[in-house]
């Protein structure tokens, strides 16, 4: 139940034809394992019980990580509540500093709702299907803001343009001074998922100095009449803790070899199901983790069955990006259609079924990116960037090295290959046009 104590709304807000909307001042508290008590205001309560938001209860936050970390079964629903909670705290901290003029009060409502709703477009199993060429979850989420019960609810809360206002915040296109709380270097989405994922996985890597970070937020005028969320100089160490936690979680959890093997298998299983007509991109966007897996298994999809039984492909090659010979071309990470053709050609040359050879080189180039204003102790304003700042924030200056050590090129196989797959590494350095030519002419790749 979405209510902490499972209580109905008070009788004063009910009518003969069923429960009505809670009064403007009505709030409820939900107990959360990470942040303890999360207080929800009227607007959040109205949105929370719509089918679009309730679906998030059945979408795991970290995809297939539960196959490695059994506790990682927490959901996008819990994360949405956490992001909302931290956004409320951040707004309250700014208000205590006297930095929220009256004209920003409407922005505050929209920002809180954007935090709650930012993940409503997510596919089953986290980001896997976006890697597989499906529409981004942000685009799907913005579409859902205008549809069904949720769309009607948002119009009831803030008027006809309210869904559009929230959508602009979610996609990072809003001109609100509070945009940085939803999308940016120190967005609260990031603070919650790093802290929550680490807690639920049982690892010490996601430690963020949350209290110090929130108390260090400030609004900074960066141009005539234009303001942004920034950080006070006292919060630089807390910001570094956030960035390093992100690096550690990618290296040890999100890009763990078994997690990535299951993710690659899942992507191929879903793409095959779409080709067969078992599912459509539209139906997948409304599916849940278990619902989609059941469809794939009933369709006798061998990869889906292997994932369910945890019979994952094994590593034939596993290299950190810093040791990958040559310059791997963008198509490896950005063109799933071409990558699949290469994988199947290699499988055919090895005499194994399609899907038995999977190549993985995930990309997150802005993993440790920094771009926000800094208010120094003297009152001056500087901009923190990837170059860091002399005497402060040294982490961005080594960001590329950290990214290269976290990112790995792997080739997963269903069975041990009869010969080395090392020559495949050269193929990954060929331009896309050359790879397509060889495939079209049915030339051997290795």
Description of the structure:
By secondary structure, the chain is an alpha+beta fold. The radius of gyration is 23 Å and the shape is globular. The N and C termini lie far apart (56 Å). 44% of the residues lie in helices and 12% in strands. The protein has 20 helices and eleven strands. Helix 4 crosses helix 8, helix 6 (137-144) packs antiparallel against helix 8 (162-170) and helix 9 (188-201) packs across helix 11. It has helices spanning 42-48, 51-54, 76-96, 105-117, 128-131, 137-144, 148-158, 162-170, 188-201, 210-215, 236-254, 257-276, 281-285, 289-298, 302-308, 331-334, 336-349, 399-406, 424-427, 432-440, and strands at 14-15, 18-19, 28-32, 36-40, 217-223, 226-232, 314-320, 357-360, 372-375, 381-384, 408-413. The strands form four sheets. Strands 5-6-9-10 form a four-stranded mixed sheet. A hairpin with a 2-residue loop joins strand 5 and strand 6 (226-232). The chain has a domain at 26-202: Orthogonal Bundle (Hypothetical protein af1432), CATH 1.10.3210.
